[in-house]
Amino acid sequence: MTELIDRTDTAADAPVLEELSMQQAINRALRVLLAEDPDVLVFGEDVGALGGVFRVTDGLQKEFGDQRVFDTPLAESAIMGMAVGLAMNGWRPVPELQFDGFAYPAVDQIVNQVARMNYRTRGAAPMPITLRLPSFGGIQAPEHHGESLEALFAHTPGLKVAAPSDPADAYGLLLQSVRSDDPVVYMEPKARYWDRRPVRLTEPTDPIGTSRVVRPGRHATLIAWGAMVHRCLQVAELAAEDGVELEVLDLRWLKPIDAAGLAASVARTRRAVVVHEAPLTAGLGAEVAALVTEQCFRDLAAPVQRVTGFDVPYPAGPLEPQYLPTIDRILFAVQRTLEY
Amino acid sequence: MAEENVTFTLPDLGEGLVEATVLEWQVSVGDVVERNAPLVEVETTKSAVVIPSPQAGRIVELHAEEDQAVPVGDPLVTFAVQGRAPQAGIVGRVPTEEARPARRVRLKPPAD
Questions:
Q1: Rounded-to-integer distance, Cα A161 and Cα A135, Å
Q2: Which residue of A has its CA nearest to B93?
Q3: Which residues contact A151 (CB under 8 A, 6 or more apart)?
Q4: Chain A partners within 8 Å of B90 (Cβ)
Q5: Which regions in chain A score pLDDT beneath 70?
Q6: How far is B44 from chain A (nearest CA, A)?
Q7: What are A184-237's pLDDT values in tens digits?
């Protein structure tokens, strides 16, 4: 007879409430993964001795040794190429590319090898690689240190793409990503690394590819991922002062996209505004808008609005506040849907 | 949080310049400055240039008089800064959180 135990209620196992930043939550997930699976390897520029430029891999080399957590040469293409070879030999690599802007030299490996190997070998060589990619802007870094590459990776068949927005979800999504036998690009929102709050680190329960409503509302749905979720929550707070109740949907999996979750929310609210940092043209917002429109055409009270970065190269630090979707730009888009 | 003193030294403002002459201080001891606020105008053999503040803090000491030449690498100004906030690592800065973000756009709830 199967005994059903609600593990969350047993005092000894109940996850404790801890005050953790997203950096620390990701670090804890990496610890769990390294401990549970001897095939997991963590490597990249400065992830070993230094503990990562964002301190995400702090202490891991000391705890698990320099055979499992190690520094690489400053060569992104080699980092991903090494991940491919390790994966083919049975390892479960978790490489880091230090900044998303540095991913471009590795795109050949990511697109031509990582994403295709499972297809090419008819499943003989799966690529259980999770690429940790500090992503997006918001920390006023120099050029090439802030990008928003989700559309590029989501457009590449064979890859899964995740972008968490808070510490607890960063923990759960990373566990799922690394345990998945498919390659995942795990985009860590740099601007939220220092987001510190009381969290319970729990095993993920939602399947890969599910979104979540982080704030319920009835007048319109704000759809976002990564750091823009926080901004949308700020917007929803301000909108409430005007009597407008905004729902905020954290997409969190950008491939596969939770089409059903989008439809369920927008069918209720009848209005949708999608917010992202990447430029407008051919951004993931277009995909979201198409999915919403296809499924909710008759329910929609207004066309889906997109609030995005501009169609310019991602600017260096001082111009970032002008480039990223501002609270007013999002509010203005909401108003356009309300008065349509 | 405890304050600590951080001294900013004169950087090389060109390629291989050895010194700069202070023309005009744009801050005084006791001023609280933001990052990138104008700090001091100096003149090198190439040009006159305003050096922005490398960080936020309270000015506790100016290490040179006006018209005085300062060798590259010598102390220029000392700030008192609040105990170290979490560092951004090698590049970038930790975003600051506004308790209540500013807004201009107001919303009108829909009729339905």
A1: 12
A2: A139
A3: A278, A282, A283, A284, A287
A4: 53
A5: 1-14
A6: 26
A7: 999 999 999 999 999 999 999 999 999 999 999 999 999 999 999 999 999 999
Count, residues in chain B = 112
Query: Is A52 in contact with B89 (Cβ distance < 8 A)?
Result: yes
**Considering the entire predicted model, what is its pTM?**
0.80
pLDDT of amino acid A207: 96
Interchain contact, A53 vs B89, CB within 8 Å? yes
- Judge whether A271 and A310 are in contact, CB under 8 Å: no
Protein fold of A16-200: Rossmann fold (3.40.50)
Report the alpha-carbon distance of residue A302 to residue A275 in Å, rounded. Answer: 16
ipTM for the whole predicted complex goes beyond 0.85:
no
Architecture of domain A212-338: 3-Layer(aba) Sandwich (3.40)
Instruction: Specify if B92 maps to a domain.
Output: no
In-domain check, residue B105: no
Q: Which CATH number fits the domain that encloses residue B24?
A: 2.40.50.100
Q: How far apart are CA A131 and CA A102, in angstroms?
A: 13
Per-domain boundaries in chain A: 16-200, 212-338
Q: Could B91 and A141 be called an inter-chain contact, meaning their C-beta atoms sit closer than 8 Å?
A: yes
What is the total count of domains within chain B? 1
Identity of the residue in B89, B101, B105 whose CB atom sits nearest the CB atom of A332: B105
- Give residues 8 to 37 of B whose Cβ lies within 8 Å of A: 36
B110 pLDDT above the threshold of 90: no
Question: Taking CB atoms and an 8 Å limit, are A139 and B93 in contact across chains?
Answer: yes
Active-site residue set of A: 145
State which residues form the domain around B56.
3-82
Residue type at A243? G
